[in-house]
């Protein structure tokens, strides 16, 4: 578990791990330079339970924290957990049993139960559950579907190390990039039980960094297609992804920049946070370049609902101009 200013939900997250029916574990918690009471909370729990191994240090970011814990872990199996979610007591036991029964699987996740800011259950309207078998997961990769919920994942340490752990360039979508790389060396799947209560609220990372996350997702999928075609992955050694306009040069052929921009633009239409930041400018650029207009007039109405009337007018003007042209 990596923690950064997580005091609000941290106690419930830690206690759900300590309450696991599977008890033979070490609990690595990195405090990644928190400025709230998270370090003190972690120390207090470590004093009460010797299975907790706290690492308290300056801020280095989530990917550095995840890779540090993989290197530090003494066990051959690693379970991921986030500081705002809650494990069901039988989560680890069921995932360990799955990996023991399926030695050809290197990663197993589970379905999750969505909860809100105050622990209230949320209805999953139009959201499909994660695929179960490796074959289903490979199909999901093809059409950009969900793969494995990161804080519900358990994986074999040596297999993750064999592909270089998490890659620094894919901030906010480091898990997807890892699953895509692992899919070619091991099997991945999910247990069809809701073993994790996954918290959704406005302040979480996926809400605050929607545009960067979507760009990283599109580039990770492009890199996966390169590997699938037998070509080298140009993102493998990057510390940071280049601007979208530079992707043709990175991949060594034309069309990648347009492909990524279009995928991101169409994906960001539903995100209020993205439509309030650089995601909106990316969408406008996509339209000015003659990109797909699917559902864009509905996006104008959506911007009004988001409280962005000036951006709604700008998008409507862009659509009108491109239609006239």
TrEMBL record:
Coiled coil: none annotated. InterPro entries: Glyco_trans_2-like, Nucleotide-diphossugar_trans. It comes from the Bacteria. Residues 1-162 form the Glycosyltransferase 2-like domain. Gene3D superfamilies: Spore Coat Polysaccharide Biosynthesis Protein SpsA, Chain A. This is Glycosyltransferase 2-like domain-containing protein. Pfam families: Glycos_transf_2.
